[in-house]
Design goal:
Helices cover 26% and strands 17% of the residues. It is α/β, with parallel strands linked by helices.
C-alpha cells in the first residue's frame, strides 16, 4: 500500500497547485517529502535511503525519473512547459498537473509499478479485481467446464503457450 510520496519538482509556476496537492495528501495520512534541488546536489545518493516499498516518486527532472525507474523505484514524471523537450521515455506514468491528483490515483500508479492487480469493485461478500498470473491454474480449472466456454473464447490448449507462463503478463 502506498504510504509515502517524494516530490522533486522545480517548476515555480506550479508551487500553489503543488502546495494544495501536498496538503491534501497529508490530510489523507500520506507522508509527503519535498526534495529540493540543493538537497539532491547532482548526486542521487539521497535516494539510496528511500525504501522502494510503499513509495512513489514524482519528479519533473528526466535524469532523476529515468535513473530511479531503472533502479526499480515507482516513478511518475511531471511534465510541464519547461521540460517537454526532455526524454521521459522509460517512464510509464506522466502527470501534467496536480489539481486533480488524489491518493486513489497515486495508489493506482503505485500498484501498477509494483505489478499488483487493481481492485475494481469490493463489497462485503465479493472482491472483483484484475486477473493475475497466480489465477491461471484456477482459470484453466474453470474453463474446463464446457458450459463456461460456450460463448467465450477458450484459453490456450497448451498452458506453456499461455502468455502468463512465458512471463509476458504485466500488471
Amino acid at each position: 500500500m502506498l504510504s509515502k510520496v517524494f516530490l522533486f519538482v522545480n517548476n515555480p509556476d506550479q508551487q500553489e497547485e503543488i502546495t494544495k496537492f501536498v496538503e491534501n495528501l497529508r490530510r489523507q495520512k500520506v507522508d509527503v517529502q519535498m526534495i529540493s534541488k540543493e538537497l539532491l546536489n547532482d548526486s542521487f545518493d539521497i535516494f539510496n535511503a528511500i525504501n522502494k516499498e510503499q513509495t512513489l516518486i514524482i519528479s519533473d527532472n528526466s535524469l532523476v525519473c529515468n535513473y530511479l525507474s531503472a533502479k526499480g523505484y515507482c516513478v511518475a514524471a511531471y511534465i510541464h512547459d519547461n521540460n517537454r523537450h526532455e526524454s521521459f521515455s522509460i517512464i510509464s506514468y506522466i502527470i501534467e498537473g496536480f489539481e486533480e491528483l488524489d491518493y486513489e490515483y497515486l495508489s493506482h500508479i503505485y500498484n501498477r509499478c509494483m505489478g499488483r492487480p487493481q481492485t475494481i469493485l469490493e463489497t462485503d461478500r465479493c472482491v472483483l479485481r484484475e486477473i493475475t498470473v497466480e489465477d491461471v491454474d484456477s482459470l484453466y480449472e474453470l474453463y474446463a467446464d464446457p458450459l463456461v466456454t460456450q460463448y467465450i473464447e477458450p484459453l490456450y490448449k497448451d498452458r506453456e503457450r499461455c502468455p502468463s507462463k512465458r512471463g509476458s503478463y504485466r500488471g
